[in-house]
């Protein structure tokens, strides 16, 4: 029986990296000037950390692993020109990354590892912790996971009776300016998790966290559903690119 050929997506990570290293564009001995440049960047990173390094150099360090023998500075700059900044490159959807010439599966894997690591670090600071005393960490986590998404995403943070975060779930994804939300489903899920309170969070890809009329109406519907079931709606946060908006602080709750 003839087996269908395996696609690149079916291969394990070592295979992807092996294929990238042996791709025609990367064959041959690495020029000494590239090796010297890479070594200088690595030393600067080790000695001074990331604070003094521009975004394109940070991207170069990531690209080194996936593209071992080519000058990756032009590719790093192209990524920044296309997506806008370091964060948007790291969080860019894989299909959009593939549209950039020179970006293969190995590069995408490296970028997604960085994204996942950043989200896991931020999440660890809030999960199973008292939300009120960890509010700044919560905002950092929301910005890390949502501020640079290209589509709206709606998340619900579920808290126990001591206001400790017990679950963080993405309820829905939408378009660039709309995401469907079903208040009854939000309240139902809270009961399933035995939660006592919730915090709503969604992002505005435009970067402006100002609430729309539909945002305000939806929040009131969720608040009504929570009241009927004895749940507390602590807040609704809208995450913009560089700042957030709190419905409670703005008087909408």
From TrEMBL:
Pfam family, one: RadC
CDD domains: MPN_DUF2466
SUPFAM superfamilies given in the database record: JAB1/MPN domain (SSF102712), RuvA domain 2-like (SSF47781)
Keyword vocabulary terms for this entry: Hydrolase, Metal-binding, Metalloprotease, Protease, Zinc
Family annotation (Gene3D superfamilies): 5' to 3' exonuclease, C-terminal subdomain (1.10.150.20), Cytidine Deaminase, domain 2 (3.40.140.10)
Signal peptide positions (record): none
Ranges of residues in domain MPN: 131-253
Family the entry assigns: Belongs to the UPF0758 family.
Protein name (database record): MPN domain-containing protein
Organism encoding this protein: Sulfitobacter dubius
High-level lineage: Bacteria, Pseudomonadati, Pseudomonadota, Alphaproteobacteria, Rhodobacterales
